[in-house]
Amino acid sequence: MFKKRLQLFQSLLIVNDFIILTVCWIAAFYLRFYTPFIPVTKGIPSLDDYLILLVFALGIWMGTLHLTGVYRRFFTRTQEIMALFKANLIALMILVFITFFFKRTEFSRLVFLYFGLLNILFLSLSRFFFKGYYIILQKKHLRSERVLIVGVRELAQNVAATIQKHPELGLQIRGFLARVPQRVGTEIQGIKVLGLYEEIDQVIQTWGINLVIFALPLTAHQKLEELLNRIRNEMVDIKIVPDLYRFISLRGGVEEFEGLPFINLRESPMVGWNRILKRSFDIIVASLVLIILSPLFLLIALAIKVTSKGPIFYRQIRMGLDGHVFEMLKFRSMVVGAEKDTGPVWAQKEDPRRTRLGKILRKVSLDELPQLINVIKGEMSLVGPRPERPELIQSFKDKIPKYMLRHKMKAGMTGWAQINGWRGNTSLEKRIEFDLYYIENWSLPLDSKILIKTLWKGILSKEAY
Questions:
Q1: For 176-224, what is each residue's pLDDT tens digit?
Q2: Which of 241-250, 340-349, 351-360, 432-441 has the highest average model confidence (pLDDT)?
Q3: What range does the domain containing 11 cover?
Q4: How far is CA 40 from the centre of its chain?
Q5: How far is CA 463 from CA 70, 151, 339, in A?
Q6: SS3 label, residue 315
Q7: Number of domains in the chain
Q8: What three-state secondary structure class fits 187?
């Protein structure tokens, strides 16, 4: 029911945006060629050419709005404006690119600029008025659901707060039901507790309830069968929110398979097409970079051999996807036997174990380049949580909640935590927070963004030593 109500709202919003984009395109044409702001020197082109291009422009803009999540997510007012600005900028760049390389007619770049500016302004304004009008329409003409929430604890309060946050759903919370008499008559978030669990059938009839939402703690689920029996003859919709959200850690959700509901408390994003796409991306990009940088590889290898005794590569056991260990490659940047006296430790600032060449290699992260071989072999990815040594992980996993969840994604040469400054001997808690954010929100565009930022922000870092 929630999805159907949201689909109606989102469908109307798409129609609204479609109309606004069309009007802004035509307005941009007339602003450019029929106003005295900037004189027209080459004559006024036919509107027909621009209307043909409008078909492609609408496809680009609507597609970009979808891909950036404007229709799937709910934003604050500021967040929505920023999301529209981002989508508009991406779409504008695509349109300019296409018309520049595949043009048959010379199109005015000023029309595109006016179109972009008008879009941001009128899409933002129209959404503000549209949402307000839709909520009024919902209250006056569309069927509103009178909701009863069974439960009063944290889960029930979260359900109520979420519903109140979305008036476009047209749901009116009439009240809660509690387990103990002392809660009856009190208010929670301005909503009254109407009665006890056992009075559910009477409350439904008295208040004309259309929808019952069970939001009971796990300890009260033994009451569920009894309560469902009490309302088996009531003409109400019933939904159950299980008290399991506290245990959801990675990409949790609910899915249906062969008629059975499955609740995902934890799931790796690397399944199906996601796994194939990320692996293909890694192989293609890593192979190209390895070929392009092969002269640099040879130069560094020769320099290491000439300037210090020992092997060119340093091999270290690290933990990767699903806890499997592998041998990670680096250009050797420290003296042979550097950890003989200290054991496994992180490198420190002004670390005396570094070679003269190693200081330079580590400062600009060139010692990490051999990990491209690990990527091609499938042991690592270009982007992902940085792998740690099993010896260090033993001490981390008991001290830091959710530490081991970072191993639900293949280890990376660079990552979201690293480009945000959490690398080397920095806060492990913050690093885990950023690693889990990356896993939750993984996509190929995010990987590309991290790689680009690594080139200008992640390589030269004050935490690299």
A1: 999 999 999 999 989 999 999 999 999 999 998 988 999 988 878 788 8
A2: 432-441
A3: 2-140
A4: 45
A5: 36, 49, 20
A6: strand
A7: 3
A8: strand
Q: In which residue are the tokens 């991290």 written?
A: 450
| Residue 382 domain-assigned (yes or no) | yes
Query: Residue with structure tokens 């503000």?
Result: 128
Cα distances from 335 to residues 331, 356, 451, in angstroms, run 12, 10, 30
Residue at which a domain ends, from 113, 140, 167: 140
Residue at 429: amino acid letter: E
360 to 90, 181, 363, 366, 415: CA distances (angstroms): 38, 71, 5, 8, 22
pTM: 0.60
User: Are residues 337 and 445 located together in one domain of the fold?
Assistant: yes
Using CA atoms, how far apart are residues 113 and 122, in angstroms rounded to an integer?
Answer: 14
pLDDT at 465: 47
pLDDT tens, position by position, 135-178: 676 666 555 678 999 999 988 999 999 888 877 777 889 999 99
Q: Is the torsion defined by CA of 371, 327, 363, 404 positive or negative?
A: positive
Ranges 151-165, 373-387, 417-431: which has the least confidence: 417-431
CA angle 222, 265, 240 (to 5 degrees): 40
Spacing of C-alpha 186 from chain mean position? 39
